[in-house]
Give the backbone structure.
Amino acid sequence: MANLNIDSIKTRTFDAIVIGSGMSGGWAAKEFTDKGLKTLVVERGRDVKHIKDYPTTNLYPWEFAHNGEVPQDIQKANPIINRCYAFKEDAMHFFVKDAEHPYVQEKPFDWIRGYQVGGKSLMWARQTQRWSNFDFEGPARDGFAVDWPIRYQDLAPWYSYVEKFAGISGHADGIPQLPDGEFLPAFPLNCVEDYFSKQIKGKYANRHVISARCAHLSEQKAIHAQQGRGQCQNRTLCQRGCPFGGYFSSNSSTIPWAMRSGHLTLRSDSVVHSILYDEQQGRATGIRVIDAHTKAVTEYYAPILFVNAGALNTNLLLLNSTSRRFPQGLGNDNGLLGKFVAFHNYSARISAEYEGFQDLTTDGRNPAGGGYIPRFRNVFKQETNFLRGYAAGFGASRYFGSDSDGLGVDFKKSLENPTLGPWQVGSHMMGETIPKETNYVRLDPKHKDEWGMPLLSVSVDYDDNDAKMKQDFYEQFTEMYTKAGFTNIKTINSKQAPGLDIHEMGGVRMGHDPKTSLLNKWNQLHACPNVYVTDGACMTSTSTQNPSLTYMALTARAVDHAVQAAKRRDA
Ligand SMILES: Cc1cc2nc3c(=O)[nH]c(=O)nc-3n(C[C@H](O)[C@H](O)[C@H](O)COP(=O)(O)OP(=O)(O)OC[C@H]3O[C@@H](n4cnc5c(N)ncnc54)[C@H](O)[C@@H]3O)c2cc1C
Ligand code: SF4
């Protein structure tokens, strides 16, 4: 009987365990299995197989029961996720419903989640920009957070590495605060976007309107063919899951790649409850997992653990991993676990009209979404009354109107000859928020979920710096729009709660000093180095760029380090 027990432990023992199969967990799975490690990926949600589990991907508009809109009863039952622009009839099956996974809002916070194999990599808008040294040096320069333990040079080769595999479209624009990468051809700007780009270039020294950089295969290279992914067809139905693998997701790319290696075991419907810590060995030894349906408890073991549950869930999991050595949560000697959470501020927009180019319209669709305006405030010197800055999206489109009255030939003619209104332009701000100790998550002392995990309690808010930054965005963009000859300029304050930007970061931040940070420069917990955190929880500050490409690069780099370190221990 004893032998049977040993055999059972053996089947539950791996070379590496990855918690979460989303954007960053998928990369950990790929990297470990590429290096020949027997790897277990544990995912709390259901399995979503590429193509097979994209139920709406090939539906025509008229095949949707509600013309693409979310029925009112579902909207009412889900006031939080219903605020997300992507929560529509064709993609709503990828969103965590409000009632199914409750959390506590000490302050309003819209937590948007995707619990499934692939996580939020199925739902994202695929904007991918590298961070620059202005971001990594920022905290040291203006003192708004602790110093990053790495610089751009540490990550640059890893950005190149993940970009080549994932496939990123973009131009080499030569902008210091937005490093160029390994680009596939960019999706072109339309005539008004291009006009604005030229106007801004002519009128400002350090402001740029460029083609958005995006994780789409504008061209299929051999490495993408090997993944079974084809060139993007510009359908712009990406939120449904793309049958061509035209955009990067864990489901189309890293997870099947890891599976083909023969080294991956994927356990979906398995909620990781906590990480096991062995005091005698002075290291983490495995994980405790609750079956999502039967609630049966199983333990799995490995010498290397990667936590990629998505920023706030990673905080929750570490806080819930208590032991005699770590009574406040794994690695939490300094009491800072869960603190210094930060995010992006997407609450300001500005729109206008342009009377030019009346003879032109758009042809085809741009899956990259148009233009991108990199941060231009406080880059080379502090020039405003707020810290850091903002980037912005920029897009132009033409109003299309059709007279849908009538029948037969007249009706067809009116559909084929829509009335074109003036060009409409719009920008949305992507502001960097300052990580603060008072922005935190913690375990709710009273309430647990049905898997026995304490509910996550979130206390995150904007501050005076965000208000000043927003004001500056309105002023600067009004000036730029006016100079470009745009009219009917309107500023919009969405007044949305934090969280809706879906770029939550921090709580397990990196740093040099174990007194002020949780992770070292290789993403290892200072106090428990065989546990690595490489999702958004590890971020020391937030930059103005979208974050996921940086999670991917940090993950690939950290796996490389973990495998080398394991080899050194064996040697
Ligand atoms: C509508 C939308 C648009 C976005 N647009 C962009 C964009 O343009 N650019 C960009 O950079 N980012 C964008 N994002 C954000 C991006 O999707 C996330 O930054 C990214 O997916 C985070 O990767 P992750 O691995 O940390 O988490 P996720 O991708 O969320 O994966 C985490 C996984 O862990 C699982 N998990 C959680 N807890 C447990 C547990 N206890 N046990 C087991 N498994 C667990 C979850 O089910 C999930 O599958 C967008 C997101 C959304 C929803
Ligand atoms: S635009 Fe490209 S990635 Fe999006 S659904 Fe179409 S083919 Fe797929």
In short: The first strand starts at residue 16 and ends at 19. The radius of gyration is 24 Å. DSSP finds twelve helices and 23 strands in the chain.
